[in-house]
Protein backbone atom coordinates (compact mmCIF):
# COMPACT_ATOMS: atom_id res chain seq x y z
CA UNK A 1 0.00 0.00 0.00
CA UNK A 2 1.18 3.54 -0.75
CA UNK A 3 2.98 5.27 2.16
CA UNK A 4 0.85 8.40 1.65
CA UNK A 5 -2.41 6.45 1.82
CA UNK A 6 -1.31 4.74 5.04
CA UNK A 7 -0.33 8.11 6.52
CA UNK A 8 -3.72 9.61 5.65
CA UNK A 9 -5.59 6.63 7.09
CA UNK A 10 -3.60 6.75 10.33
CA UNK A 11 -4.11 10.52 10.58
CA UNK A 12 -7.88 10.17 10.14
CA UNK A 13 -7.99 7.32 12.64
CA UNK A 14 -6.19 9.46 15.23
CA UNK A 15 -8.39 12.44 14.40
CA UNK A 16 -11.49 10.28 14.75
CA UNK A 17 -10.39 9.09 18.19
CA UNK A 18 -9.67 12.62 19.48
CA UNK A 19 -13.21 13.18 20.81
CA UNK A 20 -12.91 10.09 23.02
CA UNK A 21 -9.58 11.30 24.38
CA UNK A 22 -10.78 14.85 25.04
CA UNK A 23 -14.03 13.57 26.52
CA UNK A 24 -11.99 11.50 28.97
CA UNK A 25 -10.09 14.69 29.84
CA UNK A 26 -13.23 16.58 30.99
CA UNK A 27 -11.69 17.11 34.40
CA UNK A 28 -8.91 19.17 32.78
CA UNK A 29 -9.53 22.77 31.68
CA UNK A 30 -9.71 23.20 27.89
CA UNK A 31 -7.03 25.90 28.04
CA UNK A 32 -4.64 23.49 29.75
CA UNK A 33 -5.27 20.88 27.05
CA UNK A 34 -4.56 23.43 24.31
CA UNK A 35 -1.40 24.64 26.05
CA UNK A 36 -0.16 21.05 26.23
CA UNK A 37 -0.99 20.53 22.54
CA UNK A 38 0.98 23.64 21.60
CA UNK A 39 4.00 22.81 23.75
CA UNK A 40 4.19 19.14 22.73
CA UNK A 41 3.69 20.00 19.06
CA UNK A 42 6.49 22.54 19.29
CA UNK A 43 8.78 20.05 21.05
CA UNK A 44 8.12 17.23 18.59
CA UNK A 45 8.53 19.57 15.61
CA UNK A 46 11.82 20.86 17.00
CA UNK A 47 13.12 17.31 17.45
CA UNK A 48 11.99 16.39 13.93
CA UNK A 49 13.61 19.47 12.38
CA UNK A 50 16.83 18.88 14.30
CA UNK A 51 17.05 15.16 13.47
CA UNK A 52 16.24 15.70 9.80
CA UNK A 53 18.62 18.68 9.61
CA UNK A 54 15.85 20.89 8.27
CA UNK A 55 16.13 23.59 10.95
CA UNK A 56 18.40 25.91 8.97
CA UNK A 57 15.55 27.47 7.02
CA UNK A 58 14.20 28.86 10.30
CA UNK A 59 17.11 31.33 10.51
CA UNK A 60 16.18 32.71 7.11
CA UNK A 61 12.45 32.71 7.88
CA UNK A 62 12.68 34.66 11.15
CA UNK A 63 14.58 37.49 9.46
CA UNK A 64 11.75 38.06 6.96
CA UNK A 65 8.98 40.17 8.52
CA UNK A 66 6.31 38.91 6.16
CA UNK A 67 7.13 35.27 6.96
CA UNK A 68 7.05 36.00 10.70
CA UNK A 69 3.68 37.75 10.30
CA UNK A 70 2.27 34.77 8.38
CA UNK A 71 3.58 32.37 11.05
CA UNK A 72 2.04 34.47 13.84
CA UNK A 73 -1.32 34.75 12.09
CA UNK A 74 -1.46 31.03 11.34
CA UNK A 75 -0.51 30.29 14.97
CA UNK A 76 -3.37 32.45 16.22
CA UNK A 77 -5.84 30.77 13.86
CA UNK A 78 -4.70 27.25 14.76
CA UNK A 79 -4.88 28.07 18.47
CA UNK A 80 -8.41 29.43 18.02
CA UNK A 81 -9.36 26.28 16.10
CA UNK A 82 -7.88 23.93 18.70
CA UNK A 83 -9.42 25.93 21.56
CA UNK A 84 -12.89 25.91 20.03
CA UNK A 85 -12.74 22.21 19.20
CA UNK A 86 -11.38 21.20 22.62
CA UNK A 87 -13.97 23.34 24.42
CA UNK A 88 -16.77 21.81 22.32
CA UNK A 89 -15.69 18.24 23.07
CA UNK A 90 -15.12 18.82 26.79
CA UNK A 91 -18.56 20.46 27.10
CA UNK A 92 -20.32 17.54 25.35
CA UNK A 93 -20.87 19.32 22.04
CA UNK A 94 -19.15 16.70 19.88
CA UNK A 95 -21.85 16.67 17.20
CA UNK A 96 -21.68 20.45 16.84
CA UNK A 97 -17.87 20.33 16.64
CA UNK A 98 -18.05 17.65 13.96
CA UNK A 99 -20.51 19.71 11.94
CA UNK A 100 -18.18 22.69 12.24
CA UNK A 101 -15.26 20.62 10.95
CA UNK A 102 -17.42 19.39 8.08
CA UNK A 103 -18.48 22.92 7.13
CA UNK A 104 -15.04 24.52 7.51
CA UNK A 105 -13.69 23.45 4.08
CA UNK A 106 -16.93 24.59 2.45
CA UNK A 107 -16.53 28.03 4.01
CA UNK A 108 -12.88 28.10 2.89
CA UNK A 109 -13.96 27.38 -0.70
CA UNK A 110 -16.61 30.10 -0.46
CA UNK A 111 -14.07 32.62 0.84
CA UNK A 112 -11.62 31.65 -1.91
CA UNK A 113 -14.20 32.14 -4.64
CA UNK A 114 -15.54 35.42 -3.25
CA UNK A 115 -12.36 37.18 -2.09
CA UNK A 116 -9.61 35.53 -4.15
CA UNK A 117 -11.76 35.18 -7.29
CA UNK A 118 -10.84 31.50 -7.62
CA UNK A 119 -12.69 29.59 -10.32
CA UNK A 120 -14.05 26.11 -9.67
CA UNK A 121 -14.15 23.48 -12.41
CA UNK A 122 -17.19 21.24 -12.95
CA UNK A 123 -15.88 18.41 -10.76
CA UNK A 124 -15.20 20.83 -7.89
CA UNK A 125 -18.66 22.38 -8.25
CA UNK A 126 -20.24 18.91 -8.21
CA UNK A 127 -18.27 18.04 -5.06
CA UNK A 128 -19.54 21.21 -3.37
CA UNK A 129 -23.13 20.40 -4.36
CA UNK A 130 -22.83 16.87 -2.93
CA UNK A 131 -21.24 18.19 0.28
CA UNK A 132 -24.01 20.76 0.73
CA UNK A 133 -26.87 18.43 -0.22
CA UNK A 134 -27.57 17.16 3.33
CA UNK A 135 -27.71 20.74 4.58
CA UNK A 136 -30.13 21.79 1.85
CA UNK A 137 -32.35 18.86 2.81
CA UNK A 138 -32.57 20.19 6.36
CA UNK A 139 -33.48 23.68 5.19
CA UNK A 140 -36.39 22.51 3.00
Q: State the order of secondary-structure elements, H for helix, E for strand.
A: HHHHHH
Helix tally equals: 6
Q: Estimate the strand proportion.
A: under 5%
In total, the number of strands is 0
What profile does the largest beta sheet have? none
Rg on CA atoms, Å: 19 Å
Low-confidence stretches: none
**Which structural class best describes the helix and strand composition?**
mainly alpha
Q: Measure the end-to-end span.
A: 43 Å
Written overview of the protein:
The chain is mainly alpha-helical. The protein has 6 helices and no strands. It has helices at 3-24, 30-51, 56-62, 65-90, 94-115, 122-139. The chain is globular, with a radius of gyration of 19 Å.
Amino acid sequence: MNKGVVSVLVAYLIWGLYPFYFHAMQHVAPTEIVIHRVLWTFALLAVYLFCSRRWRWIQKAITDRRTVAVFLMSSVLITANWSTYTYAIVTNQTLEASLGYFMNPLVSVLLGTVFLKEKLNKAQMLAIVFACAPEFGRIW
